[in-house]
Amino acid sequence: MSRPRLGLALGSGSARGWSHIGILGALAERGLRADVITGASVGALVGAASAAGRLDALERWVCTLTQRDVWRLVDTTFRGGGVMSGNRLMKTIAEQIGDAPIESLPTTFGAVATDLYTGEEIWLREGSFMAAVRASSGLPGLLAPTWYQQRWLIDGGVVNPVPVSLCRALGADVVIAVDLRRSVTKMAMRAPEGLADSQDRKKAAENEAAVEATSEASAEGTAILRRWAGLVDGLVESFRSRRSDPGLFEVMSGAVNIMQDRITRSRLAIDPADLVLRPDLADFQLMDFHRAREAIEIGRKQVQTVAPQLASIAAQLRSGQ
């Protein structure tokens, strides 16, 4: 009998997704290397890098990112169905981890996307893995949809935020899932009642730095952002408005989070994983990509907390049962 195949289903979650890197590294240290990896959105990105053997390169790069670097990657547009086209971001990522046909990867890989017009769950199993990552990462309202395989595709997290079903379909016998959704209950408990003066000054300084960085990246983007100053205040949750009412992108992010919270609960009930890891990343905002070191460490610590369950899975894999 052949040994059971281990699968990893990496969930969507924007900047929280860097925790996948820490989780994958900690699992590998315990001898748990995946035979199958699937992902949605940022989970697809980290999963593709791992499947291609380029996870270390991705980790080195994300750990160098500053908030200004993140803003430089924002290619603003108010056309095409999103605030960002995503082209600059994906080109930069490809420079770090390369690209290759999914069929050629040493580890079985698949990404999930959503057909914008039919709502179908689309499994991406062939062609450029970077093209699949981009198609899986079109967060509604933020990143423009992608025309891929004769469809307009948006974020896979819209229909399957933690793609356990795809993992099993690709041959995984044992599945470890990583769920990055932010608990709606916990978020309600942390709902802000207002910002202190010191926080106001800090956020104002961050907004100014963001506009400056965008100016360096694109003169056209700067003109747009200055014209739409209200959108700059709300472009990411971390740049909260001084007003007590939520900004545009906070509303968008909150709505997506609520949707994914409900969908993930339903999908994991129907397609349960053998083990679900839920790192505590509630303090991470939509665009906190510059906080990679923190997220990675949180991911590593999450693996430590489930050591007994992982030992059981490792024994199961060794025994072939």
From TrEMBL:
Q: What is this protein called?
A: NTE family protein RssA
Where on the tree of life does the source sit, at the highest rank?
Bacteria
Give the molecular function GO annotations: hydrolase activity
Gene Ontology terms: biological process = lipid catabolic process
Annotated keywords: Hydrolase, Lipid degradation, Lipid metabolism
- Which PROSITE patterns does UniProt cross-reference here? PNPLA
Q: Where is this motif: GXSXG?
A: 39-43
Domain PNPLA, residue spans: 8-168
Q: Where is this motif: DGA/G?
A: 155-157
Q: Which InterPro entries match?
A: Acyl_Trfase/lysoPLipase, NTE, PNPLA_dom
Show the taxonomic lineage: Bacteria, Pseudomonadati, Pseudomonadota, Betaproteobacteria, Candidatus Accumulibacter
In this protein, the active site sits at S41, D155
